[in-house]
Amino acid sequence: MLYEEYQLMYRNDHTDKYHHLPPIDIAIKISKTLHQRFSVSDLTQGLKHRIADKYDITDASVHKLTNLLEEDFQYQEITSSK
Q: What are phi and psi of 15, to 5 degrees?
């Protein structure tokens, strides 16, 4: 997933005050970790809670981000188009 694609989704995500996607700087860090270390089946509810606590975001934000990054049982990394 490209940085620009994520920015577009982030700006257009106004579904709920507390269930939005995390800011791009946090999303990049989370996506890199997920892409390098985990497959989709590895991510448990407890791990999602720990990610949310570490980055001071809501559990719903982590859930929404992981759903967005999920592709073919792997997580995509948010990368620059450069």
A: -65, -35
The pTM (predicted TM-score) of the whole model is: 0.80
Cα separation, 49 vs 63, whole angstroms:
9
CB neighbourhood size of 23 (10 A)? 12
Q: pLDDT tens digits for 40-50?
A: 999 999 999 99
- What is the distance between the alpha carbons of residues 9 and 58, in angstroms, rounded to a whole number? 18
Phi, psi of 43 (to 5 degrees): -80, 110
Span 22-66, pLDDT tens digits? 888 999 999 999 999 998 999 999 999 999 999 999 898 999 999
User: Among candidates 5, 23, 21, which has minimal Cα distance to 13?
Assistant: 21
